[in-house]
Design a protein that fits this description.
20% strand, 107 residues, alpha+beta, 5 helices, GIY-YIG endonuclease, globular
Length: 107
């Protein structure tokens, strides 16, 4: 199985978590999570409705992945996790390893 962590190239996809003002989490993917967080907080036309209504949001977690396909698969899994499980990701690398193990990657 190929490791879904990116090793080379200049355009890496990232999986990220934002913590909103109300303590809830928002999961997403982006080539630039810091820029994306700013968009969620400052540009209504670029923000998700969820984050816009719970601003300000803070980028609290991100991981680089191999490509957009892997990022989308991981985002889907991340969004299904409970708030407690997302909180654990912030403090425990084993949760990240377990999340990656749930997706199929090509050799």
């Amino acid at each position: 199985m190929q490791n879904p962590i990116a090793n080379d190239g200049s355009h890496h996809w990232h999986l990220y978590l934002l913590r909103c003002r109300d303590g809830s989490f928002y999961a997403g993917i982006s080539l630039d999570p810091e820029r994306r967080c700013k968009e969620h907080n400052q540009q209504v036309s670029r923000a998700s409705r969820y984050v816009w209504s719970r601003r300000p949001a803070e980028l609290v977690w991100q991981r680089t992945v191999a490509n957009q396909s892997v990022a989308l698969q991981l985002e889907y899994r991340l969004k299904k996790l409970s708030k407690v499980a997302k909180e654990q990701l912030l403090h425990d690398e084993h949760g990240w390893v377990a999340l990656q193990a749930k997706i199929k990657t090509t050799p």
